Amino acid sequence: MSSVENIRWVLVTAIAPIAWGSTYYVTHHFLPADHPLWGSVLRALPAGVLLLLLRRKRPRGRWWWRSLVLGTLNMGAFFALVYLAAQLLPTSLASTIMATSPVAMIALAWPMLGERPRGRAVVGAVTGILGVVLMLASGVDSVDPVGVVVSVAAMAMSAFGHILTKRWGAGTDVLSVTSWQLIAGGAVLVVPALVVEGAPPPLTGSSLLGFAFVSVVATAIAFAAWFTGLRHLPAGTVGLIGLLNPVTGVMLGLLLAGEPLTGQQVLGLVLVLSGVLLGQTTRSPMSRTCACPTFRTRELNTQNARVERSGPESRTFRTPEFNAQACGRPPGTDTRN
Question: Where do the domains of the chain lie?
Answer without folding.
Answer: 3-284, 289-326
